[in-house]
Design a protein that fits this description.
single chain, Alpha-Beta Plaits, Alpha-lytic protease prodomain-like
Length: 325
């Protein structure tokens, strides 16, 4: 029953993730229209830069919906390990998009400053920038909460995309306000656009670095591996735990480890110990979703009574968190 409840909760969380992404798309579409109109009609380079950032945000919403679709899919014949990596690729897509936008905005703003090609923006652009700050910060707060609950990298990346948009709108708000009220400081509008590009680039780099580390099977922190080893060695019947290998699969961790047991025990007894190991580790460490346990006989014992072949034989069992036997 526990497995069904777990699946139901996960499905509900994914639906929530999709819902907030659709809401984000609606808000982004309105803000893009406002900022583009305000930037062009109100002569604000910073507001146009902000609009471009929101366009990239809208595109990242599409990427996130694709990612959530595959995160929700279970394993199938062609993908026996599930579709989690596609979700990580979606996060890379969001990061790459952000980086490209940052470079474009920064280059154009720097060129405008160098050429002195600046005009004082109209004051109504201030209201548009202020609306954007409030809307995007609210979207960040809701999206990050759901992203943590779902365990979705792409959703978390998108939440930070919302926040970077809020930050860029704060910078835009400052630049537009000063440039419109103090005409001789109108170049600040272009400086604000340049500053926005640095914000976007920083967020993009963090998203890309995190996702790329998972794609290349980076191991979780050594502290976690050590904590797992100590936990396993406290399971009755386990004499030692060694050769722990782990890697990220989307936001979850998959692990392989060896346990040393009494060489005289039956396969059934060894299997019971494996069950206890899997249960204890997956209960204590929420992020660990799957463990493959190899059983090794304790070679320090007197080996004279054992057949040579038996010493080289291993039994293994694989349990998935949330599954039922």
């Amino acid at each position: 029953m526990g497995g069904h409840s777990h699946d139901h909760d996960h499905h509900h969380d994914l639906e929530e993730g999709r819902r907030i992404t659709w809401v984000g798309m609606g808000v982004n579409a309105v803000l893009i229209a406002l900022k583009l109109w305000g930037g062009l009609a109100g002569r604000s380079r910073a507001l146009i830069a902000d609009a471009v950032h929101s366009i990239s945000d809208l595109m990242s919403d599409f990427i996130v919906l694709i990612g959530l679709h595959f995160l929700g899919k279970g394993k199938d014949e062609e993908h026996p390990y599930g579709h989690g990596k596609i979700e990580t690729l979606a996060a890379i897509g969001v990061g790459a998009l952000l980086l490209a936008v940052a470079i474009k905005i920064g280059y154009e703003a720097a060129l405008a400053i160098y050429r002195g090609d600046v005009a004082a923006p109209h004051r109504f652009t201030i209201i548009i920038a202020a609306v954007s700050v409030v809307a995007k910060e609210l979207l960040y707060k809701v999206t990050v909460r759901i992203g943590r609950k779902v365990g979705s990298e792409a959703l978390m990346a998108n939440a930070w995309h919302h926040r970077s948009d809020a930050w860029s709108s704060i910078v835009t708000l400052g630049g537009v306000s000063v440039a419109s009220f103090v005409p001789r400081l109108r170049v600040l509008d272009s400086y604000a656009a340049l500053f926005v590009s640095f914000f976007i680039a920083r967020v993009a780099a963090e998203i890309l670095w995190s996702a790329l580390r998972k794609i290349v099977d980076t191991a979780p922190p050594a502290e976690l591996i050590n904590a797992v080893r100590l936990t396993v060695e406290r399971v009755p019947g386990v004499r030692q735990c060694h050769d722990i290998m782990a890697r990220y699969y989307a936001r979850r961790i998959r692990m392989e480890l060896h346990i040393v047991v009494d060489p005289g025990m039956t396969v059934a007894e060894a299997h019971d110990i494996i069950d206890r190991v899997v249960k204890m580790v997956t209960t204590k460490f929420e992020d660990i979703e799957k463990i493959l346990v190899h059983v090794d006989p304790d070679r320090r014992e007197d080996v004279a009574w054992r057949r040579p072949a038996a010493g080289d034989r291993q039994t293994s069992s694989e349990k998935e968190k949330g599954s039922t036997n």
